[in-house]
Amino acid sequence: MKRFIIFLLIGFLTLPLFCFGAVVPNDIQIITEDYYPLNFVDNGTLQGISVDLFEKILQKMGSDINRSSFKELPWSEGYNLVKTTPDTVLFTITRTPEREDEFLWAGPFFTDRDLLFTNNSFQQSTVLSIKNNA
After folding, report:
1. Hey, CA dihedral for 90, 96, 102, 103, is it positive or negative?
2. What are the Solute-binding protein family 3/N-terminal domain coordinates in residue numbering (predicted)?
3. Is the peptide bond before 16 cis (omega within 30 degrees of 0)?
4. Domains of the chain: total
5. What is the band of 92 on the pLDDT scale with cuts at 50, 70, 90?
6. What is the CATH number of the domain that holds 92?
7. How big, in percent rounded to 5, are the helix, strand and coil portions of the chain?
8. Which of 21, 50, 67, 106 yields a CA-CA distance of 20 to 30 A from 91?
9. What is the spatial distance between Cα 15 and Cα 101, in angstroms, rounded to a whole number?
10. Which of 46, 20, 24, 23 is nearest to 35 (CA)?
11. Which of 73, 102, 89 is nearest to 27 (CA)?
């Protein structure tokens, strides 16, 4: 968690360097999905750390666009939309080798890893063995 916070602080401190002279089109579509705690709807308002960060980036770029114009869509719909519609942004998306050439990438906003916790008596040695015994 400490590395994540440091990464965010470095990102916010260096953000103006990357945004200088950048222009955000007014008709840009910004799409996200329900992926708690990064992006989610609470009482009708899009919330989450990725939403906060993306909104701050737009502000630093001098844009008036804010979270009220972001759209939350099901993952498959947002993913297909960003692949077929110009001036469309999708966040938060995992950067994979298969997707590398499909998009123009910005970021990363953060990095993550998946962890599995068990008690001491758990005898499975790999994720594959857990899946096979489920």
Report:
1. positive
2. 31-119
3. no
4. 1
5. confident
6. 3.40.190
7. 35, 15, 50
8. 21
9. 24
10. 46
11. 89
